[in-house]
Amino acid sequence: MAVATQQLADKNAAKAKINPDDYRMTLGEHLEELRVRLFLALGGYIILLIAAFFFGDTVVSYFCLPVVRALGENNINTQLIVDEAGEGFMVFIQISMISAAAVGAPWIAYQIWQFVAAGLYPHERKYVTKFLPLSIALLIAGMLFVYFLILPWTLSFLVGFNNNFQIPGSFVDAETPPAFVDSSSNPIKFPSFQGNPKSAANGDVWYDAKLKRLKVYVDSQVRTISVNGNNLLATEIKLSSYIDLVMSSLLIFGISFQLPLVVLAVARIGVVPLETLKAIRQYVYFTLAIAAAVITPGGDIPSMLGLTVPLILLYELGIWLASMKPKTIQPA
């Protein structure tokens, strides 16, 4: 007991010896530090941006993977549409810039932290370094959650729902052949492949069962013809609109997953007592559901539910963290 008391006294004495003037910088020093950190952060970003231009098309393909799978599962042409000549190029630039920012985020964050930390006391820096790893982990978890679960689930449901609208029989009767076709003649049959054949001659035609396309080999190139089902609705997804949906979803889910830290901070600072946070659960749940409906990209019910349920669980995680003793959540 005496040893613990002595250690606490030594710790308080060390804090008392901190001279605020030792951690102050002049305005000129702040501006010089800011200039250096901005130069390093921007320089690193530009280098990564140049590198991203070599992989931008591949990254775009990965971004489109959830919607391509959803279309393929419903036997719909997996090509996305563009209605402007420069749309594909602008999406390429957008994705390259975002990819460079994502990869360079640790370096940029480090430069920002070096500038901010220069004006903080040691005990203030301690709070940032304590919870920063958890914040980054929650951000990444939110983005992975939306990419691997929410987007595939939502797109598959919505595309499949559109695919259920059939053309009324009064307009098109698939069972009755057109009057100008001789019923005794045989239909043309195309060979079917799971992709492309190993070799093809000029003029060859086949059906790609994997991509749901009719393909023609012309002038040493494979040309495609979209093949859609006998549905009332033809699902065609615009590239730029889809990319905007993905980016906004990643951002919203990543930020929303910071909720445990918000709850922890509110409880620890004393803005709202922990017991009050526990007592108002049902009202918080309702508020989170309303917030999810407002901020969810697209405004569809599957995405709203996909955000509401994790937010409720994250709120409970925040309460659990706040109920722990401070020493149990300090990093090793």
Automatic annotation (TrEMBL):
Pfam family, one: TatC
Membrane topology: Multi-pass membrane protein
One GO term describing the cellular component: TAT protein transport complex
Residue ranges of coiled coil: none
Single GO BP term: intracellular protein transmembrane transport
Entry's Gene Ontology molecular function annotations: proton motive force dependent protein transmembrane transporter activity
Cellular compartment(s): Cell membrane; Membrane
Keywords of this entry: Cell membrane, Membrane, Protein transport, Translocation, Transmembrane, Transmembrane helix, Transport
Membrane spanning stretches: 34-55, 89-110, 131-155, 250-271, 283-299, 305-323
InterPro entries registered for this protein in UniProt: Sec-indep_translocase_CS, TatC
Function: Part of the twin-arginine translocation (Tat) system that transports large folded proteins containing a characteristic twin-arginine motif in their signal peptide across membranes.
Entries under PANTHER family matching the protein: SEC-INDEPENDENT PROTEIN TRANSLOCASE PROTEIN TATC, SEC-INDEPENDENT PROTEIN TRANSLOCASE PROTEIN TATC, CHLOROPLASTIC-RELATED
Subunit structure: Forms a complex with TatA.
Family to which the UniProt record says this protein belongs: Belongs to the TatC family.
Descriptive protein name: Sec-independent protein translocase protein TatC
Species the sequence originates in: Humisphaera borealis
